[in-house]
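Subject: Interface between my chains keeps coming out wrong

I've been trying for a while to get a sensible model of this assembly. When I model each chain on its own everything looks fine, but I need the whole thing in one frame so I can look at the contacts. Pasting all components below, labels as-is. Any help appreciated, I'm running out of ideas.
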Amino acid sequence: MEKNTSKHIIGRTVAYIVFISWTLITILPIFWMAYSSFKSNEELTRNIYAFPYELFHNEDDVYEIIAPQLNVTPDYDTETDTRERMIIESTSISPGRRLMVHFLVKEDLPQEILSRDIGDTLTLSELPKQMRREISRKTMLFNYTSAIQRGGLAQKFLNSLIYAGVSTFLINALSLMVAFALSKMQFKKLSLIVGGLIGFGYLLSVNSVIIPLFLMLSKMGLTDTHIGIILVYTAFGLPLAVLLDTQFISGIPGSLVESARIDGASTWRVIVSIIVPMAIPVTVTVSIITALGIWNEFLLVLVLASSEFTKSLPVGVFSFSSLTSTQLGWQLAALMVATAPAMIVYFIFQRRLTEGVVGGAIKG
Amino acid sequence: MKKGKVFVLALLVMVMIVPSLWAQGAQEAGTDGKVVVKTMAYGDNSNQEGVNWVRIVNSFEKENPDIDIDYEMLYDEAYHQKVVARLAAGDVPDLAYMGADARWGLPWKEAGQQFDHTEFLDPDYYDLNLIPPMDMNGEIYEIPLGTSNITTVLFMNTRLMDELGLSAPETYEDMVAMVPVARKAGIEVLTIDGADGWAWGSCLMSAVVARMSGDPQWVSKAVAGEYSFDDKVMIDSLSFLNRMVDDGVLLEKSVLVDYGANVSNYNNEKALFMVQGQWVAGGIENPEVANATKMIAWPTLPGEKPGLEGSVAAAIQVGYGLTKQGASDPEVRDAALKFLRYFFSHAETTQRLRDGAIVAPILKDFEVPSDLPSIVKEKVALAQRAPNTDVIDAFLSGDANEALNTGMQKIVSGQSTPEEVAMQVESLVQR
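Reply #2:
Try treating it as a single job with all components included. I did that and got this:
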């Protein structure tokens, strides 16, 4: 009895260590990413693990008054707003790169500041309260606004939604129909061959077919179109979905299908009224695997999409890092924008998803 | 009723999504009636090239609402790979970032997409004397961003040198003498991004082989078959890498340093010198280091032939050019040329000069501003005083160039000998 208890305690301890470690391994990078997305590039370079400071404690930030230049892009409509401005640039956040720049309306500035020349400095605390508050807010959100505006993340976010949503719908619809035919229709030998071919498709890697795929889509006029990219995602997602669906549907009693047939149901009616409702657990599983895979997919969309109109979020995230320059803060902010929807979906539908995954795994 | 609602919802979603699915690139609603110039641009959202490109396109489109610059912007290897893929697929852009040499021009040449701009360049606007001929009959396939692109620069931190009581080296031996002094101070003499194969060829060996041979066109002549890549000149040049490692001027672990780390090492004053090309001048973000930087040619090397003292390797700078396909449609061609004129405006060129992106402009009657940053002035001064020699990868391409670049990495890390590398390169040269 005592031996069993100690075994139980050891077992539980090991289990807890494993589970806690796994939780930490999963959560800590997200936590790090979340707080680091509020750090300036300079802070990230200095100490990659420290908590954000510079962007929040900005009341004593020093700014340099700079001359108007082509690479200083106004953040207001110069055609409608013709008020004179004083341009200032941060000396601590991306200094000299014309990235952290503010355009102060001269008529709102005190005379003492107006008398300063280009090259002179001022601290944020010297500015009028309203201006100070506005700059402070912009500084805190610097990474996010820069990432969204410069990376065109709004359009890319929409594209990611379209790719993940439409492709997942098509994969589920098509795979359920194929799986029904493979597992419930009377073509055993043919089903074996078709199933084998589809299974072979699962072994194809994106990298090995990307160039021929690009050439093929170009000939069809489908590169740089949403539909072209969706078709490719659907094709790559189908094999696994068919395998899982076939496994699951073959576990559904054949008598249900036969009863429906006796009642006069067509094949379409059997799929819609019997197979689809019963296959919800595996459909949820397939949806999670597919949608998350497409949401995070990078290589295909990088090659197949040419314009900003068709690129998706992972390409946007990638665009903040290159050989010659990296904006880590912007990249982390973009990553947060890309990761947040997946996390929100998971938190909202957590129970349903768990049920679906478990159901999909066991009931088949 | 519930099913009905679902059906209506599904229908609505389809109505909203389906039209956009078939829209191609930026040719969706909104570009109707506009002249679309399909463009391949170079840069990304984090670097100056990319940020400036987006700004220029936006302001150009605002001023020219009848023209749409439909661009794809990529950087580094992603750009080169996509160029090859798009050309192979027949998806040819109308306008592209391109060069005329083996690295930047070859894919366009092989695809038969190089277009001679000569008759479309206004000689009153562009200084045609500053745009070198890019083929046998004097063709101009692209408008370079600036004049010659110096690739073998030694960036010298004069502040560190002064602190350590050192002065600019006149010979390689002077650099060797700096090794113990630098080590004592906890820094290195030289930093190079040895993890990037191209840096060895473009930024170091191009200067060395010219100096060792005494022939500024040694590389182009070797590619043409006048010399051989396993000649003594090449072996001696490659052996110089071994000597640098033995002398402590170059570290074996240099082969682990990438471009960003190289610039960072120099920015953070971990080395007296940085080996790179002129374009890095705009990337030295530490203002104190930038202001204390002198850009010099390599000092006299051991075994160097007389005549090329203080020379630097330089290539025709890359730029933007129309493709044959883009030029075939007069409407697209005129729109692209209008954009190029805007892109190469005096104001934008001044900005490019100020940002350190070019050595000198190719515009006629261009007035160089007197208030340029000191490092930009340094660059202009170097361009004016240093004789030019061939850049290796402007002439050597494909497997041979790859073998040379990786071979140099292997020599530095002790995995290969100069003779082996030289023989391998020679065996792969396609003449």
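Reply #3:
Confirming on my end. The beta strands of chain A are 62-66, 85-90, 101-105, 121-123.
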